[in-house]
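Retry 2 of 3 after timeout on previous attempt. Resubmitting structure tokens to design endpoint.
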């Protein structure tokens, strides 16, 4: 997952967590939004770490 995909997941998760008031039976959209934000943040962290280690290998 690249930085763009991670930021997309964070944005969709934030919208579900803070902006959606719709109720779906059997699904808590706030929890889904929180999970998407966490996954996006972890993906962004891994992307940044791999970018830093790749730069060190090149130099």
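Retry 2 succeeded. Sequence:
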């Amino acid at each position: 997952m690249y930085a763009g995909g991670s930021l997309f997941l964070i944005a969709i998760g934030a919208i579900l967590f803070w902006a959606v008031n719709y109720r779906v039976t059997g699904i808590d959209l706030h929890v889904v939004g929180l999970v998407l934000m966490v996954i996006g943040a972890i993906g962004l962290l891994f992307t940044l770490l791999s970018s830093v280690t790749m730069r060190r290998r090149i130099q």
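Attempt log closed. The helical segments are 3-19, 29-58.
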